[in-house]
Each structure stands twice: as structure tokens, then as C-alpha cells.
Amino acid sequence: DQQVKQNSPSLSVQEGRISILNCDYTNSMFDYFLWYKKYPAEGPTFLISISSIKDKNEDGRFTVFLNKSAKHLSLHIVPSQPGDSAVYFCAASHSGTYKYIFGTGTRLKVLA
Amino acid sequence: EAGVAQSPRYKIIEKRQSVAFWCNPISGHATLYWYQQILGQGPKLLIQFQNNGVVDDSQLPKDRFSAERLKGVDSTLKIQPAKLEDSAVYLCASSPLAGGSYNEQFFGPGTRLTVL
Predict the structure, then answer these.
(1) Residues from chain B contacting residue A3 (CB–CB below 8 Å)
(2) What pLDDT sits at residue A41?
(3) A82 upstream amide cis, omega within 30 of 0
(4) Are A46 and B99 inside 8 Å of each other by CB?
(5) What distance in Å separates the CA atoms of residue A84 and residue A19, rounded to the nearest whole number?
(6) Which of A14, A76, B57, B108 is the most buried (most CB within 10 A)?
């Protein structure tokens, strides 16, 4: 049972435009969400997080939106840069376990 | 600050052989995690240590996988005997706080295991 889903395995965006990466979850107990970025041959690096008490969190070019009723979150990157090309994982957790459940990832390619 | 170190980076073995992976977390980090990432999937937690005690090993296949964290610092993950389906990247991560809270996990580069 995949509790965290990223239904788009890949996404291509032109440099300077907006990238929108989506993530859906099924467990209503999840109350903390994160995005990680992963370059080839490297481990994932933390990008941004959001608690369920918020519906938006912003950090520079990166904004995460949370829609609890739809059990959906999205990561917006504006403007997209070629260096943003990587695999992006969303992860979710709840205060019962504090374990992170990862999605399958979306490969973003930003075209120069 | 040095990051999480893992070795080896790559390992190729035949099925039924044994293999061990090593992880050195960021200095002072209380919690250490081992994840398995199969191609096309997200990382899956295998085991979580807090200092040198096991917090969660519910998804560790204990008939063939074992892990220890020596003196609350370095950790080794062993597979004995390996199966074809163990082919994956094994990621080690550490976090500064003890379990029971949300805290950022810092990942190492991983060890890519291929079982033939």
C-alpha cells in the first residue's frame, strides 16, 4: 500500500518558467511533510517542509502548498533553473511514529 | 562540517554471498537511519537507531539483514545471504535530535548493491 504517491515520474520545464511537482497521500494521520532533492550518485538533500497547521510555506524560489482536504501537496519552483534538474521526493510523517514515508519521486528536467 | 560518510560506494556480489555496508554519521548526531531504495521507488526505512539502541526495525528482514551501531557512532548493515531482490541503493542518514520529534535527516551518498 503506497501511502505517498507521486504520479508523475518525470517533468520537463523551460528555464525561467514555473515547475509544479505534485504529491498525494492517503493517511489522514500525516501531519508533517517534506520535499527532498536528489542528484545522481548523491544522497537526498532536504529542501523544504510544511506542518499540517499551515497551508503554505515559502523559502526563496521554493514554495510548498498543502491541501489537507484533498490530501495533496505541491512544490512550486519559480523561476526554474537548470541546476534544479534532479529527482524530487516528497515524504510524510505523523507524530505517532515520526517515520518518514517517501513517494516514488519525480524527475525534473529544466531545459536551458 | 563533514557529511554522512558511507562505504563502499558500489558493490557487486553473487546471490547467497554476504555483504556489509558501513556508515559514519555526522559528529554528534543522535539518530541514525538505514534506508533501502529500489530502482524507481522512494527510500524505505529499514532500521532506526537512537544512540546505540534500536528504535524501529519493523521493516528489516531479520532473517537475512542485521545492523548494529557501535558505541552510538558508526553503524554497519549486513546482508547474509543476499538475494537478487536485495539489489538497491542503501542510504544511511543521521539527524541531530533524538527520536520523538520531526527533525531534518542528512543523507550519505549511498551504496549501490548489485546482486547477480
Answers:
(1) none
(2) 87
(3) no
(4) no
(5) 10
(6) B108
